[in-house]
């Protein structure tokens, strides 16, 4: 009796260890079938391995830039595409993924940095092992990447916004700006440039007010309502923030000003699709994240192939997007933002 | 046969039965050894099957990436063994990181001095936790949920959304340097020292016996001469001080002092401690299990990342493993109860058998 119970305990303990280890291995097993592939992926036998590390997973913006942009480009030049990232965007969350890429010996990393500095030492380690590093969307310090793919310049954004509103209101009348926070660096830079552009090229357009919705949906909604009642002659609103433009569109959609007050700014197609289709909004702009990822992949490929070194003046070709030149500090500019209207909005999903 | 005689003659007591096991069974058939065995299995499996896992870089990155978890897990194990919990550790890490950044760059202090003050701030933070829990008698879960938010708020509030990033290269390099020509980074040295200190403290000192007693029954501990409040107070101070040290390490390693550094790490630490066989109800646990728990999670993460698994799949596996390992305790307890019951019957039968075969006695 005693003996058998002993055996029972021993057996249970062994079974337990086995179950636990099977649980661990089992779940890794679903990928062990491509473990062999991984071996060759790391090597150079089957093209260039390019690993995308967005800020976090499950973010539609990065799905558009990586899967609809980067992957397309990598497939075009017959490389191997990978995407890994932490589940939340924390400053040092990308570090272990960069380390892993260095271990795997991937040829190039394309990173949207969660923090300009935190991933730097990991990136430098990868670079010293021969990995080429391209940042896009959010840059790191210039010394820990080879190239930065910049989505748009402030001048380009300001000009696109002003041109759109001018076109929609017939180049004269009162307009207002619904911005994010009063101290938001990006937005303030754009607003300053818009003011200059208006003064220089559109003397008949009068900027009557700038209000701040703090990138909060309800605040932006209320500020839009206040703008319309404070300025009965208002003909247009520019909202250079994705939260603001969506809230403003929602307000206009249900108000009597629908179709009378123009709205434009920076927004994402998924947020704005409804309002563009029902005529509340004629057009708005944003850089195309898919093009951004596509360009980043080609830039990485050019670095790996040795076509370019990342020095100012280096030229490379990025598939359907054409030729690009590396600017100062290793920055490559994507170009002007894409303007979304009801004719093209269904081509985008982000 | 001797053991059977002993059992038969002894009154049916659980404690006695536990010690009637031979020494190797008491040593080997434990949760801790199961986790160590699993660690060895997974490490061996990954070395054989996962491309690039065998490279010396794996151990190096494993040490660098899990250093803060390992450091904080040591005092956390003791806190949990007393039946308490400390959820504020990651916030203390963030606070310490911000302190180092501000003191070094705004106040112009050297890194060692800034680090020392950061640890002092950590001690104060831990003392507040400890005071409220040990002397005021508030539940640690509630207190540390509160201080978790408060310390994080303080850290983020001090720096806002900005970061301090200009640290001397000498110090940032130090955090990632190898020990001589080995594959281990320098941070392994303080880890080994602290492991030695904590193993002594928990398993070989009177203080440690008090820790276990408090976890089993704090009133009984009190009446047997353990200073319950002081023990708890010391543990919370120790935990926060080591968290502050981890904060300095993270700051130098990432060259980056930010209020949101290490967000969510408290749960990683607690997960590793529980996986390592420490009971969340207190009273049981051992540091070799905790160390294996930290390493096991690190090795699984590392191997799965090398397999290009997404972070969600990795999290699911770690989560499942944790649930299974906690469940295994319940299953083992149930089994040993069954065993005790049957053994009890066995004893009875044996007694009857003895009685019937020797009627003259």
Written overview of the protein:
The complex is a heterodimer of chains A (350) and B (361). With 350 residues, chain A is of the alpha/beta class. Chain A folds into two domains: 40-151 and 289-334, Rossmann fold; 154-286, 3-Layer(aba) Sandwich (Rossmann fold). Chain A contains eleven helices and 14 strands. A six-stranded parallel beta sheet of chain A has the order 2-1-3-4-5-13, sandwiched between helices. Chain B has one domain (30-331): ABC transporter involved in vitamin B12 uptake, BtuC (Orthogonal Bundle), CATH 1.10.3470. Chain B starts with a helix and ends with a helix. Chains A and B meet through helix 1, helix 2, helix 4 and helix 5 of A and helix 1, helix 4, helix 5, helix 13 and helix 15 of B.
- Computed over alpha carbons, the radius of gyration of chain A is 25 Å
Q: What kind of oligomer do you see? A: heterodimer
- From the N-terminal CA to the C-terminal CA of chain B, the straight-line distance is 21 Å
CATH class of the largest domain in chain A: Alpha Beta
Q: Compute the number of structural domains of chain A.
A: 2
Estimate percent helicity of chain A. Answer: 40-55%
The share of residues in extended strands of chain B comes to under 5%
Q: List SSEs of chain B in N-to-C order.
A: HHHHHHHHHHHHHHHH
The helix content of chain B, as a percent range, equals over 70%
Radius of gyration of chain B: 24 Å
Uncertain segments of chain B: 1-14
The separation of the N and C termini of chain A measures 67 Å
Number of strands of chain A: 14
The fold-level CATH name of the largest domain in chain A is Rossmann fold
Task: Output the CATH homologous superfamily of the largest domain in chain A.
Answer: Response regulator
**Shape type of chain B:** globular
Summed up:
Chain A is built from eleven helices and 14 strands. Chain A has 350 residues and is α/β, with parallel strands linked by helices. The N terminus of chain A is likely disordered.
């Amino acid at each position: 009796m005693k003996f058998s119970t002993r055996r029972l305990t021993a057996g249970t303990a062994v079974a337990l260890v086995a179950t636990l280890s099977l649980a661990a291995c089992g779940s890794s097993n679903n990928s062990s079938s491509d473990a062999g592939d991984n071996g060759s992926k790391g090597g150079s036998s089957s093209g260039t391995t390019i690993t995308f590390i967005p800020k976090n997973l499950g973010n539609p913006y990065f799905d558009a830039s990586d899967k609809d942009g980067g992957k397309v480009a990598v497939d075009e030049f017959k490389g191997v595409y990978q995407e890994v990232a932490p589940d939340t965007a924390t400053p040092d969350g990308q570090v272990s993924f960069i380390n892993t890429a260095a271990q795997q010996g991937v040829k190039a990393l394309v990173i949207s940095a969660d923090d300009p500095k935190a991933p730097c030492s990991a990136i430098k380690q990868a670079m010293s092992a021969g990995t080429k590093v391209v940042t896009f969307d959010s840059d790191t310090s210039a010394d820990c990447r080879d190239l930065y793919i910049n989505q748009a310049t402030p001048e380009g954004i300001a000009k696109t916004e002003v041109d759109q509103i001018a076109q929609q209101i017939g180049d004269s009348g009162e307009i207002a700006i619904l911005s994010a926070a009063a101290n938001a660096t990006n937005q303030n830079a754009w607003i300053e440039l818009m003011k200059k552009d208006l003064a220089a090229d559109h003397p008949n357009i009068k900027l009557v007010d700038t209000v701040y919705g703090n990138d909060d949906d309800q605040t932006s909604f209320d500020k839009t309502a206040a703008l319309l009642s404070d300025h009965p002659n208002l003909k247009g609103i520019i909202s250079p923030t994705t939260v603001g433009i969506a809230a403003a569109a929602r307000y206009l959609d249900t108000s009597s000003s629908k179709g009378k007050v123009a709205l434009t700014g920076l927004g994402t197609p998924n947020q704005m699709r409804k309002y563009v289709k029902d005529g509340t909004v004629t057009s708005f702009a944003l850089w195309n994240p898919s093009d951004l990822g596509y360009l980043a992949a080609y830039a990485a490929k050019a670095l790996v192939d040795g076509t370019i070194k990342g020095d100012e003046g280096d030229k490379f070709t990025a598939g359907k997007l054409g030729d690009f030149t590396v600017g100062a500090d290793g920055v490559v500019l994507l170009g002007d933002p894409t303007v979304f209207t009801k004719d093209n909005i269904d081509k985008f999903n982000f | 046969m001797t053991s059977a005689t002993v059992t038969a003659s002894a009154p049916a007591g659980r404690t006695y039965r536990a010690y009637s096991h031979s020494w190797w069974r008491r040593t080997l058939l434990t949760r801790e050894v199961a986790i160590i065995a699993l660690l060895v299995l997974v490490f061996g499996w990954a070395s054989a099957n996962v491309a690039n896992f065998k490279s010396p870089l794996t151990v190096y990155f494993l040490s660098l990436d899990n250093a803060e978890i390992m450091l904080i897990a040591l005092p956390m194990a003791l806190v949990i063994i007393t039946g308490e919990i400390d959820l504020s550790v990651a916030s203390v890490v963030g606070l310490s990181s911000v302190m180092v950044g501000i003191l070094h760059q705004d106040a112009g202090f050297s890194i060692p001095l800034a680090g020392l003050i950061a640890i002092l701030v950590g001690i104060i933070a831990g003392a507040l936790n400890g005071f409220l829990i040990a002397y005021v008698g508030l539940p640690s879960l509630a207190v540390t949920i509160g201080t978790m938010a408060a310390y994080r708020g303080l850290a983020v509030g001090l720096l806002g959304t900005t970061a301090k990033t200009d640290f001397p290269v000498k110090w940032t390099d130090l955090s990632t340097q190898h020990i001589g020509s080995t594959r281990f980074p320098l941070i392994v040295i303080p880890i080994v020292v602290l492991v030695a200190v904590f193993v002594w403290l928990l398993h070989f000192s009177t203080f440690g016996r008090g820790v276990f007693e408090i976890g089993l029954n704090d009133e009984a501990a009190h009446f047997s001469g353990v200073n319950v409040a002081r023990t708890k107070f010391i543990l919370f101070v120790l935990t926060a001080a080591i968290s502050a040290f981890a904060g300095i390490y993270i700051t130098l390693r990432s060259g980056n002092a930010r209020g949101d550094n290490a967000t969510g790490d408290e749960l990683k630490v607690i997960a590793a401690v529980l996986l390592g066989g420490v009971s969340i109800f207190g009273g049981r646990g051992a540091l070799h299990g905790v160390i294996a728990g930290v390493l096991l999670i690190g090795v699984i993460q590392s191997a799965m990342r090398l397999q290009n698994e997404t972070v969600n799949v990795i999290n699911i596996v770690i989560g499942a493993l944790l649930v299974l390992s906690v469940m295994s305790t319940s299953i083992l307890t149930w089994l040993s109860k069954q065993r005790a019951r049957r053994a009890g019957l066995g004893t009875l039968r044996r007694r009857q058998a003895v009685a019937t075969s020797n009627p003259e006695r």
